[in-house]
Specification:
The chain is α/β, with parallel strands linked by helices. The chain has one domain: TIM Barrel (Alpha-Beta Barrel), CATH 3.20.20.70. It is built from 11 helices and 10 strands. Strands 1-4-5-6-7-8-9-10 form an 8-stranded parallel beta barrel, surrounded by 9 helices. Helix 3 links the parallel strand 4 and strand 5. Helix 2 packs parallel to helix 3, helix 3 runs parallel beside helix 4 and helix 7 packs across helix 8. The longest helix has 18 residues. The N and C termini lie far apart (about 60 Å). The protein binds ligand PBG.
Protein backbone atom coordinates (compact mmCIF):
# COMPACT_ATOMS: atom_id res chain seq x y z
CA UNK A 1 0.00 0.00 0.00
CA UNK A 2 1.26 3.48 -0.81
CA UNK A 3 0.47 6.56 1.29
CA UNK A 4 -1.59 9.04 -0.68
CA UNK A 5 0.40 12.17 -1.51
CA UNK A 6 -0.97 15.47 -0.17
CA UNK A 7 -2.20 18.00 -2.67
CA UNK A 8 -0.64 21.42 -3.10
CA UNK A 9 0.08 23.38 0.10
CA UNK A 10 -3.21 25.07 1.04
CA UNK A 11 -3.51 28.85 1.05
CA UNK A 12 -6.42 30.81 2.53
CA UNK A 13 -6.36 33.40 -0.23
CA UNK A 14 -5.80 37.09 0.24
CA UNK A 15 -7.51 37.35 3.55
CA UNK A 16 -5.56 36.47 6.67
CA UNK A 17 -7.28 37.76 9.79
CA UNK A 18 -4.28 36.75 11.89
CA UNK A 19 -2.28 39.68 10.41
CA UNK A 20 -4.01 42.16 12.71
CA UNK A 21 -3.53 39.87 15.70
CA UNK A 22 0.20 39.38 15.22
CA UNK A 23 1.75 41.76 17.77
CA UNK A 24 0.58 43.61 20.87
CA UNK A 25 0.97 46.92 19.00
CA UNK A 26 -1.15 45.67 16.10
CA UNK A 27 -3.82 44.36 18.45
CA UNK A 28 -3.85 47.64 20.34
CA UNK A 29 -4.19 49.57 17.08
CA UNK A 30 -7.23 47.65 15.90
CA UNK A 31 -9.02 47.18 19.23
CA UNK A 32 -12.64 48.23 18.78
CA UNK A 33 -13.36 48.69 22.47
CA UNK A 34 -11.25 50.31 25.17
CA UNK A 35 -11.61 50.74 28.88
CA UNK A 36 -11.02 54.04 30.61
CA UNK A 37 -11.30 54.76 34.34
CA UNK A 38 -13.85 57.50 33.64
CA UNK A 39 -16.21 54.82 32.34
CA UNK A 40 -16.19 53.00 35.69
CA UNK A 41 -18.45 53.66 38.66
CA UNK A 42 -17.77 52.11 42.07
CA UNK A 43 -20.71 51.01 44.24
CA UNK A 44 -20.03 51.61 47.96
CA UNK A 45 -21.82 50.50 51.13
CA UNK A 46 -21.97 52.47 54.35
CA UNK A 47 -23.50 51.14 57.55
CA UNK A 48 -24.86 53.26 60.35
CA UNK A 49 -23.17 52.90 63.71
CA UNK A 50 -20.04 51.01 62.61
CA UNK A 51 -16.75 51.87 64.26
CA UNK A 52 -14.68 49.59 62.00
CA UNK A 53 -15.32 48.61 58.37
CA UNK A 54 -16.97 45.19 58.25
CA UNK A 55 -16.24 42.58 55.57
CA UNK A 56 -19.11 41.16 53.53
CA UNK A 57 -18.74 37.38 53.55
CA UNK A 58 -20.15 36.72 50.08
CA UNK A 59 -18.21 39.63 48.52
CA UNK A 60 -14.57 39.12 49.54
CA UNK A 61 -12.70 42.40 49.21
CA UNK A 62 -15.85 44.54 49.56
CA UNK A 63 -16.86 45.95 52.91
CA UNK A 64 -19.54 47.85 54.73
CA UNK A 65 -17.90 51.18 55.42
CA UNK A 66 -18.00 53.44 58.42
CA UNK A 67 -18.73 57.06 57.57
CA UNK A 68 -15.02 57.71 57.84
CA UNK A 69 -13.80 54.78 55.74
CA UNK A 70 -16.43 55.67 53.13
CA UNK A 71 -14.83 59.08 52.68
CA UNK A 72 -11.47 57.40 52.19
CA UNK A 73 -12.84 54.95 49.63
CA UNK A 74 -14.43 57.84 47.74
CA UNK A 75 -11.15 59.75 47.82
CA UNK A 76 -9.31 56.72 46.37
CA UNK A 77 -11.97 56.43 43.68
CA UNK A 78 -11.38 60.07 42.76
CA UNK A 79 -7.59 59.55 42.75
CA UNK A 80 -8.07 56.58 40.42
CA UNK A 81 -9.95 58.84 38.00
CA UNK A 82 -13.22 56.91 38.20
CA UNK A 83 -16.39 58.34 36.70
CA UNK A 84 -18.33 58.15 39.92
CA UNK A 85 -19.45 56.31 43.00
CA UNK A 86 -22.88 54.85 43.73
CA UNK A 87 -23.81 54.96 47.41
CA UNK A 88 -25.89 52.39 49.30
CA UNK A 89 -26.61 52.63 53.01
CA UNK A 90 -27.64 50.29 55.78
CA UNK A 91 -29.62 51.96 58.58
CA UNK A 92 -29.91 50.50 62.07
CA UNK A 93 -33.65 51.17 62.30
CA UNK A 94 -36.15 50.12 59.65
CA UNK A 95 -39.89 50.59 59.42
CA UNK A 96 -42.81 49.97 57.06
CA UNK A 97 -42.35 53.14 54.98
CA UNK A 98 -38.55 53.41 55.17
CA UNK A 99 -38.50 56.65 57.16
CA UNK A 100 -34.71 56.78 57.34
CA UNK A 101 -34.55 57.18 53.57
CA UNK A 102 -36.10 60.64 53.74
CA UNK A 103 -34.70 61.81 57.09
CA UNK A 104 -31.97 64.40 56.39
CA UNK A 105 -30.07 62.73 59.25
CA UNK A 106 -30.62 59.26 57.80
CA UNK A 107 -27.37 57.41 57.09
CA UNK A 108 -27.61 57.57 53.30
CA UNK A 109 -28.24 61.31 53.24
CA UNK A 110 -25.42 61.94 55.72
CA UNK A 111 -23.11 59.76 53.63
CA UNK A 112 -23.94 61.69 50.45
CA UNK A 113 -23.00 64.94 52.18
CA UNK A 114 -19.82 63.34 53.57
CA UNK A 115 -18.70 62.15 50.15
CA UNK A 116 -19.53 65.46 48.49
CA UNK A 117 -17.47 67.28 51.10
CA UNK A 118 -14.61 64.86 50.45
CA UNK A 119 -14.50 64.78 46.65
CA UNK A 120 -16.63 67.73 45.51
CA UNK A 121 -17.16 67.58 41.77
CA UNK A 122 -14.22 65.24 41.10
CA UNK A 123 -16.66 62.32 40.88
CA UNK A 124 -20.30 62.02 39.95
CA UNK A 125 -21.71 61.27 43.37
CA UNK A 126 -24.69 58.98 42.88
CA UNK A 127 -27.15 57.56 45.38
CA UNK A 128 -29.37 54.51 45.19
CA UNK A 129 -32.95 55.71 45.26
CA UNK A 130 -34.99 52.77 46.51
CA UNK A 131 -36.67 51.80 49.76
CA UNK A 132 -35.52 48.22 50.23
CA UNK A 133 -32.58 49.07 52.47
CA UNK A 134 -34.87 51.11 54.70
CA UNK A 135 -38.04 49.03 55.02
CA UNK A 136 -38.53 46.37 57.70
CA UNK A 137 -40.18 44.07 55.13
CA UNK A 138 -37.34 44.56 52.62
CA UNK A 139 -39.45 45.46 49.58
CA UNK A 140 -38.54 48.36 47.31
CA UNK A 141 -41.81 50.14 48.05
CA UNK A 142 -44.54 50.57 50.62
CA UNK A 143 -47.15 47.85 50.96
CA UNK A 144 -50.94 47.76 50.70
CA UNK A 145 -52.83 46.30 53.69
CA UNK A 146 -52.80 42.93 51.92
CA UNK A 147 -49.02 43.03 51.50
CA UNK A 148 -48.67 43.89 47.80
CA UNK A 149 -46.16 46.54 46.74
CA UNK A 150 -48.22 49.71 46.20
CA UNK A 151 -46.87 51.37 43.06
CA UNK A 152 -48.43 54.81 43.34
CA UNK A 153 -48.00 55.26 47.09
CA UNK A 154 -44.35 54.30 46.57
CA UNK A 155 -43.93 57.06 43.97
CA UNK A 156 -44.73 59.63 46.66
CA UNK A 157 -41.95 58.20 48.84
CA UNK A 158 -39.51 58.18 45.92
CA UNK A 159 -40.22 61.86 45.24
CA UNK A 160 -39.50 62.66 48.90
CA UNK A 161 -36.36 60.54 48.81
CA UNK A 162 -35.12 62.32 45.69
CA UNK A 163 -35.48 65.67 47.42
CA UNK A 164 -33.61 64.42 50.48
CA UNK A 165 -30.75 63.11 48.31
CA UNK A 166 -30.60 66.24 46.16
CA UNK A 167 -30.60 68.40 49.30
CA UNK A 168 -27.67 66.36 50.61
CA UNK A 169 -25.85 67.22 47.39
CA UNK A 170 -26.19 64.10 45.22
CA UNK A 171 -25.27 64.85 41.62
CA UNK A 172 -27.35 61.96 40.33
CA UNK A 173 -30.11 59.83 41.83
CA UNK A 174 -30.28 56.18 40.76
CA UNK A 175 -33.86 54.94 40.56
CA UNK A 176 -33.63 51.21 41.17
CA UNK A 177 -37.12 50.41 42.44
CA UNK A 178 -38.82 49.50 39.14
CA UNK A 179 -42.10 51.23 39.98
CA UNK A 180 -44.08 52.40 36.94
CA UNK A 181 -43.82 56.15 36.47
CA UNK A 182 -40.91 56.61 38.89
CA UNK A 183 -38.69 58.55 36.50
CA UNK A 184 -41.29 61.16 35.61
CA UNK A 185 -42.47 61.63 39.18
CA UNK A 186 -38.93 62.09 40.48
CA UNK A 187 -37.93 64.45 37.62
CA UNK A 188 -41.00 66.62 38.31
CA UNK A 189 -40.35 66.67 42.06
CA UNK A 190 -36.72 67.69 41.55
CA UNK A 191 -37.66 70.43 39.08
CA UNK A 192 -40.45 71.79 41.28
CA UNK A 193 -37.97 72.15 44.14
CA UNK A 194 -35.34 73.87 41.99
CA UNK A 195 -33.04 70.86 41.61
CA UNK A 196 -32.98 71.24 37.83
CA UNK A 197 -29.36 70.12 37.66
CA UNK A 198 -29.73 66.90 39.63
CA UNK A 199 -29.51 64.07 37.10
CA UNK A 200 -31.70 60.99 37.06
CA UNK A 201 -30.40 57.51 36.25
CA UNK A 202 -33.19 55.06 35.50
CA UNK A 203 -32.53 51.39 36.14
CA UNK A 204 -34.67 50.95 33.08
CA UNK A 205 -34.15 47.25 32.44
CA UNK A 206 -33.64 45.73 35.84
CA UNK A 207 -34.32 42.04 36.05
CA UNK A 208 -35.51 39.94 39.00
CA UNK A 209 -32.16 38.22 39.30
CA UNK A 210 -30.50 35.56 41.43
CA UNK A 211 -27.27 37.47 40.91
CA UNK A 212 -28.25 40.06 43.53
CA UNK A 213 -27.77 37.42 46.22
CA UNK A 214 -24.59 38.77 47.84
CA UNK A 215 -26.02 42.31 47.79
CA UNK A 216 -28.69 41.10 50.20
CA UNK A 217 -25.84 40.28 52.60
CA UNK A 218 -24.22 43.62 51.96
CA UNK A 219 -27.32 45.55 53.00
CA UNK A 220 -28.57 42.95 55.51
CA UNK A 221 -31.81 42.77 53.58
CA UNK A 222 -34.91 41.67 55.46
CA UNK A 223 -36.68 40.52 52.30
CA UNK A 224 -38.75 37.36 52.43
CA UNK A 225 -39.96 36.28 49.00
CA UNK A 226 -38.88 38.00 45.81
CA UNK A 227 -39.32 41.06 43.63
CA UNK A 228 -40.97 39.47 40.61
CA UNK A 229 -44.04 41.71 40.69
CA UNK A 230 -41.90 44.75 39.91
CA UNK A 231 -38.54 43.70 38.48
CA UNK A 232 -38.40 42.30 34.94
CA UNK A 233 -38.73 38.63 34.05
CA UNK A 234 -35.37 37.23 32.83
CA UNK A 235 -37.32 35.64 29.97
CA UNK A 236 -38.06 39.00 28.37
CA UNK A 237 -35.95 40.90 25.89
CA UNK A 238 -38.38 43.03 23.89
CA UNK A 239 -39.88 44.49 27.05
CA UNK A 240 -36.55 46.17 27.88
CA UNK A 241 -36.94 48.48 24.90
CA UNK A 242 -40.33 49.59 26.24
CA UNK A 243 -38.90 50.30 29.67
CA UNK A 244 -36.08 52.33 28.14
CA UNK A 245 -38.34 54.33 25.82
CA UNK A 246 -40.65 55.21 28.71
CA UNK A 247 -37.80 56.24 30.98
CA UNK A 248 -36.28 58.45 28.30
CA UNK A 249 -39.68 60.04 27.62
CA UNK A 250 -40.04 60.66 31.37
CA UNK A 251 -36.73 62.50 31.48
CA UNK A 252 -34.05 59.95 32.34
CA UNK A 253 -30.54 61.32 31.78
CA UNK A 254 -28.98 57.84 31.81
CA UNK A 255 -30.59 54.41 31.45
CA UNK A 256 -29.21 51.22 32.89
CA UNK A 257 -29.32 47.49 32.23
CA UNK A 258 -28.84 45.21 35.23
CA UNK A 259 -27.38 42.63 35.77
CA UNK A 260 -24.82 42.82 32.98
CA UNK A 261 -23.13 39.55 32.04
CA UNK A 262 -26.27 37.45 31.57
CA UNK A 263 -28.02 40.32 29.78
CA UNK A 264 -25.57 41.38 27.06
CA UNK A 265 -28.25 40.84 24.40
CA UNK A 266 -30.53 43.25 26.22
CA UNK A 267 -27.67 45.70 26.60
CA UNK A 268 -26.93 45.59 22.87
CA UNK A 269 -30.60 46.19 22.08
CA UNK A 270 -30.80 49.12 24.49
CA UNK A 271 -27.57 50.66 23.21
CA UNK A 272 -28.94 50.49 19.67
CA UNK A 273 -32.06 52.51 20.46
CA UNK A 274 -31.15 54.73 23.40
CA UNK A 275 -30.72 58.46 22.81
CA UNK A 276 -29.18 58.87 26.29
CA UNK A 277 -26.03 57.31 27.77
CA UNK A 278 -26.36 53.64 28.68
CA UNK A 279 -24.95 52.19 31.89
CA UNK A 280 -24.69 48.54 32.91
CA UNK A 281 -24.27 47.11 36.40
CA UNK A 282 -21.97 44.15 36.99
CA UNK A 283 -23.78 43.10 40.14
CA UNK A 284 -22.77 41.47 43.39
CA UNK A 285 -23.30 37.89 42.20
CA UNK A 286 -21.19 38.49 39.11
CA UNK A 287 -18.45 39.84 41.37
CA UNK A 288 -18.79 36.86 43.71
CA UNK A 289 -18.59 34.31 40.86
CA UNK A 290 -15.34 35.74 39.55
CA UNK A 291 -13.85 36.01 43.03
CA UNK A 292 -14.85 32.48 43.99
CA UNK A 293 -13.56 30.85 40.81
CA UNK A 294 -10.31 32.84 41.02
CA UNK A 295 -9.84 31.90 44.68
CA UNK A 296 -9.95 28.25 43.61
CA UNK A 297 -7.41 28.93 40.89
CA UNK A 298 -10.02 27.95 38.29
CA UNK A 299 -9.77 31.22 36.35
CA UNK A 300 -7.17 33.98 36.17
CA UNK A 301 -8.60 36.76 38.25
CA UNK A 302 -7.17 39.82 36.52
CA UNK A 303 -7.85 38.55 32.99
CA UNK A 304 -11.38 37.50 33.90
CA UNK A 305 -12.15 40.91 35.37
CA UNK A 306 -10.74 42.78 32.38
CA UNK A 307 -12.53 40.53 29.92
CA UNK A 308 -15.87 40.73 31.71
CA UNK A 309 -15.90 44.52 31.92
CA UNK A 310 -14.58 44.91 28.37
CA UNK A 311 -17.35 42.61 27.13
CA UNK A 312 -19.97 44.71 28.90
CA UNK A 313 -18.57 47.79 27.15
CA UNK A 314 -18.41 45.96 23.81
CA UNK A 315 -22.08 44.98 24.11
CA UNK A 316 -22.95 48.66 24.33
CA UNK A 317 -22.50 50.09 27.82
CA UNK A 318 -21.05 53.60 27.85
CA UNK A 319 -20.12 53.12 31.47
CA UNK A 320 -20.08 50.22 33.90
CA UNK A 321 -20.88 49.99 37.59
CA UNK A 322 -18.52 47.39 39.03
CA UNK A 323 -17.10 46.50 42.44
CA UNK A 324 -13.76 46.08 40.65
CA UNK A 325 -13.70 49.74 39.53
CA UNK A 326 -10.84 51.16 41.60
CA UNK A 327 -8.56 48.15 41.17
CA UNK A 328 -9.33 47.94 37.45
CA UNK A 329 -8.59 51.65 37.00
CA UNK A 330 -5.19 51.03 38.61
CA UNK A 331 -4.37 48.32 36.05
CA UNK A 332 -5.48 50.58 33.19
CA UNK A 333 -3.22 53.37 34.42
CA UNK A 334 -0.27 50.96 34.52
CA UNK A 335 -1.03 49.67 31.03
CA UNK A 336 -0.95 53.22 29.67
CA UNK A 337 2.41 54.06 31.17
C1 LIG B 1 -32.18 47.95 45.16
C2 LIG B 1 -30.91 47.46 44.53
C3 LIG B 1 -30.46 46.13 44.48
C4 LIG B 1 -29.22 46.18 43.85
C5 LIG B 1 -28.94 47.51 43.53
N1 LIG B 1 -30.02 48.27 43.96
C6 LIG B 1 -31.05 44.89 45.03
C7 LIG B 1 -32.30 44.38 44.46
O1 LIG B 1 -32.92 44.96 43.58
O2 LIG B 1 -32.73 43.31 44.92
C8 LIG B 1 -28.35 45.01 43.58
C9 LIG B 1 -26.92 45.32 43.26
C10 LIG B 1 -26.02 44.14 43.31
O3 LIG B 1 -26.45 42.98 43.42
O4 LIG B 1 -24.80 44.37 43.23
N2 LIG B 1 -31.91 48.92 46.17
Amino acid sequence: MTTPTPGPVPHPGRVRLRRTRSTPAMRRLVAETRLHPAQLVLPLFVREGLTEPRPIASMPGVEQHTRDSLRKAAASAADAGLGGVMLFAVPTVRDAVGSQATDPDGILNLAIADVISEVGDALVVQADLCLDEFTDHGHCGVLTPSGAVDNDATLVRYAEMALAQASAGAHLVGLSGMMDGQTGVVRDALDAAGFDDTAVLAYAAKYASAFYGPFRDAVESALVGDRRTYQMDPANRREAAREVALDIAEGADVVMVKPAMSYLDVLADVAAVSTVPVAAYQVSGEYAMIMAAAAHGWIERERAILESVLSIRRAGADHVLTYFATELAGWLAEENR
